[in-house]
Amino acid sequence: MRIGVDYTAGIWQGAGIGRYTRELVRAAAQSDPELSFQLFYAATGLDQQGPFVHYAQQLAATYHNIRLRPLPITPRLLTILWQRVRLPLRIEWLIGPLDVVHAPDFVLPPTRARTLLTIHDLTFLVEPGCAEPKLRRYLSTAVPRSLQRADLIVVDSKATASDLGRLYGIPNRRIRLLYPAVDTRFRPIPTAEAQAVRQRLGLPEHFLLFVGTLEPRKNLVRLLQAFTLLQSEHPDLHLLIAGKRGWLYDDIFATVEQCHLRDRVHFLDFVADEDLPALYNLARAFVYPSLYEGFGFPVLEALACGTPVVTTKVSSLPEVTGSAAVFVDPLDPEDIAAGIRTALSNPMPLRTAGPQQAALFRWEQAGQTLVAIYRELVTIKQAR
């Protein structure tokens, strides 16, 4: 069976959908060596020395059933041709015949193969004010078209499955649940190893941690307001925000100035994957007051490292955390501050429960589930 996977996010994006694509393809290829994976991606403008290119090359060298299929085009132009102009340039014309095409990033390319579409979340509908306007307009037209064409739809959580039914009328019979997972490098690590990263990055002794893209959905303005309420109680506590600037982030930096937090809040930008486990381990608590999540990788990573987690009881986050987190109201800075106090004052139960909860999410299981879905798609085709 030849599986075409749109690997563009996997080779261009550092976190989120990029990580999902990389890990899931590896797990599926490992699960069934008889499947042939054709990883196609927009390659023009790609840094050939970048870490994700190197990862893809290692992947193809390690698994004989993976072949990289770079396309001589930029991601933007590929999106314009396939999704905006809707040019019927089928992917088979570029990489050969396929049995299944899997699109892990919301939209399907033109194809005559059976199709699997991953929908991670519906932020652009559930929290439209949190989405970048151009992206919201694009997804509002491209996603419904892809949903209509998809033979099956994969979601990261029951919450997203519910949203698909409520907002688009997608029946459960077309939806398959596949939980992402956490890499084994996210775990409690020796103190000396973590301290070496602290010294190299110049991190403060006591800090709260947030990891994620700087965008309105992450609710960082209210996190900063909550952190302000803790200053007198914890004069040596800092807040580290690790993540690239996304969109509509000016209010975040304005709040830092308004609350006089410049000396206590540190923006680390994107943190290399190899440093993230130490960052989680060093944090006194991980705070993730998101307004909406399709899954929430950083929460699971923090749990796996045994870091006390403070998050919100919205969308998928209760599915990910179970009872291993402190839940707060995302719209109330005082409640966020109260949740942080709880995590700081009684961390040991959370440190014990976190790795146990994270162990329920394994890439090996995710890969096996995906392979079963691929085979189901072929069976559907043969039945027709």
Q: Which key terms come to mind for this protein?
A:
384 residues, alpha/beta, Rossmann fold, 2 domains, seven-stranded parallel beta sheet, six-stranded parallel beta sheet, 17 helices, 16% strand
Describe this structure in words.
The protein has 384 residues and is α/β, with parallel strands linked by helices. The chain has two domains: 202 residues, Glycogen Phosphorylase B (Rossmann fold, 3-Layer(aba) Sandwich), CATH 3.40.50.2000; 168 residues, 3-Layer(aba) Sandwich (Rossmann fold). A seven-stranded parallel sheet has the order 3-2-1-4-5-6-7, with helices on both faces. Helix 3 links the parallel strand 2 and strand 3. It is globular. 43% of the residues are buried.
CATH architecture of the largest domain: 3-Layer(aba) Sandwich
Secondary structure class reads alpha/beta
- Which strand order does the major sheet show? 3-2-1-4-5-6-7
Number of domains: 2
Q: Determine the strand fraction and express it as a percent band.
A: 15-25%
CATH topology of the largest domain: Rossmann fold
Series of H and E elements: EHHEHEHHEEHHEHEHEHEHEHEHEHEHHH
Give the beta-strand count: 13
Major sheet: 7 strands, parallel
Give the number of helices.
17
First and last CA, distance = 17 Å
CATH homologous superfamily classification of the largest domain: Glycogen Phosphorylase B
Helical percentage: 40-55%
- Gyration radius (Cα, Å) is 21 Å
- The CATH class of the largest domain turns out to be Alpha Beta
What characteristic shape results from the CA principal axes? globular
Overall pLDDT confidence = 95
Low-pLDDT windows of residues: none
